[in-house]
Specification:
Layout lengths: L1 H27 L4 H5 L3 H7 L10 H8 L5 H13 L14 H8 L25 H19 L25 H19 L4 H27 L5 H20 L9 H9 L10 H7 L14 E3 L5 E3 L5 H4 L11 E2 L2 E5 L5 H6 L6 H5 L15 H6 L1 E3 L14 H21 L5
Amino acid sequence: MIVQFATAVNSQVAEARTARVVRELECDQPVLPSTKFELLFQSLLNLLNVDSEQDLPNFWFRFAASKKKQEFATVRDCLETYARGTTAFCPFAPIPTPKLLSDLSTLTFVGDHPDDLKTGIQPFMAMDGSEEFQAAAQDLARSYSVMVEQDLGISYTDLDRFKLSKDLRAHPSNHFELEKSLGIFGNLLGTILGERHPLTMHSRDFWKTYSSEFKGRFHHVIDIRRVIKPVHILRSLQLVVFKWFSTKKLHWAPADPPFLDILDRISLHLYTNPTLPPALYQAVYQKNQKTPLIPGQNTIVSDDASTTSAVSALTCATGLTGTSRYTSTTSRYGPAVTNPNPDPNLQALLPVVVRIKDLLGTDEHPKNVANSPMYLSYHIRGICFANCRRLRDHDRPLTAADKNILSNWVVDQLAKCRAAGAITP
């Protein structure tokens, strides 16, 4: 009896010792992404566009091997290491945030709505605004890292302390800040997605073309003519990224990201400013700004300070459309009035950088089938003013025949103006 009892005790001790040794060996082995993400691992392979774990970027092996307290520091170190490497877009690294860490941990690469600019891997997560914003973001990142690593404990209510003040300008306001933001966004893609990811490769093509051919043009349209805001470029990129990841989430084969199309449209004077979400619009266009822009609608200002409205250049790619009525902006011509039913085909005919008065020249306004003049700004640009001399034309919807007449007139006038050198081709 005693011998059997002793044998059982020895057996249990041996099993416990073996289990302890196995656990120690497992702890010594680095945790792989397939182990860390388990059920989400196939989603990770899908979003990163790879077939096996060995093809994942090095970032994900370092991230998976990090302890919970070290994850934030690992993300920061990887971003800074990439920015100092030979493949970096620019020498500036993105500033990590608790939100970015949370999105990476849950593989949330894209939000549920295209107007969500605070979720996932997209340009607005890598914006570089004012110097005050940069300093505040760096301080918050260091504070959060210290609290996590020292296990001081962070409750849900403490997260509000790691949000930057809304008074700080987070968005770029000129061409030089835009250039830095584009480079930082490229570094973010290269670190997280890897060099062979379609978004990274096409983003690098965009960066090289921009750096070699478009710096002067961007400076001209953003800082001199001011017909495009830097956030419009970031918004266009963000919509492309959103569509690519959204298509991937459905396990479909997405098309190549059309980043270069943005530069081509700017070069050909075909670029139209995409719709800005209301929160971003309010941050970009302050109350004291003279330009009467419409929140939530695609808007751009031409040389004669008139307001131009058109569909987004990425509407076909993203399915984003929409119009709104706006009458709060006033001028010497009275309150601004928008066309509640604009025709996207008419709006797309006239490049946003071509002024109405240059198109019209000394010719008369085209007439509809009722032999009444059609007002160009209201029907093509989508906006006019309450004291307009042709106010009656605002309340007369265009028929199909009217639209055909106006369309042919715009095409003929553009050809005539280009031939005469009144507008650039």
